[in-house]
Amino acid sequence: MYALHRDDRSFGGALPPATLYLWRRTRAMFNILFIGSEEGGEAWAILSSLLQTCKLNRVDPHRYLLWVFGEIAAKKPRSEYADLLSWNAPLSCRADIPRRQ
Fold this sequence. Notes:
3 helices, mainly alpha
């Protein structure tokens, strides 16, 4: 078995897709073991849920979080936070639109 700390890209794509999937899954489960506390577990669950929701809505998580933090920093009132959910993200956050360099 490969060392858990190695990046799967370092293998040059020599591993079959199913193996890479299991590799990433194992690495994620290994990282979950070290969340440290109940609050850490809740934070992990929120983040994981947020990222999976982004994937389902074809939203790039990185661009989405930049947009959300920008909106919060712009002093958006809490009553409008529902507008910040991933299915309300602007087109600039879409995963199928190429990033600007």
